[in-house]
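Cross-check.
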Amino acid sequence: MNWGWLFARLPRMDWLQIEISTDCTAACCYCPRTVYQDRWLTRHMEEGLYRRLLPVFKKTRLVHLQGWGDPFTHPQFFHFARLAKRAGCQVGTTSNGMLINEQMCAQLVEERIDTIGLSLAGTGLENDAYRRGTRLEKVLSVAECIQQIKQRTGADRPHVHVAYMLLKSGRATVGRLSEVLRGRGLDQ
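Predicted model, tokenized:
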């Protein structure tokens, strides 16, 4: 079916969030993937479905590849990011950081991904407890790696920020956040 007629009538959008994967390496205590694990459907978006969104991208400033799953579990993450870039969009993503290695950090810089959010829910070991399957130090090392590659290559992207889940039980330690993040190459 040709959806072009419908998309032609869409107003310009600031951003569009697309969940390209419902898979994740973590089991965060507050995530529906964990809470409803017995009913959760783990899937990757098919390229054909993603391509059907390309007309919408032409009217969108930012495509943010994120959902309850980690987008880096999708084997076509960078391909999907390139398609959005070719449509004229900025591209952002949010990840728990566990699958991002040095090669992927370099590719994030090389592909000029505009923004990457790295998820945290604590400033110490409580992060690892709330976000089972993640490690605070690994997330911070990803931010540092991206910063080092940006400095070495003179790149200005991606902007790296922390997506912080403040839980009631974490109120006592949130004051340490700026101390833990200082000097790690984070933009926000």
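The longest strand covers residues 13-18. The beta strands are 13-18, 27-28, 60-65, 90-95, 115-120, 131-132, 159-164. Passed to J.P. for a second look.
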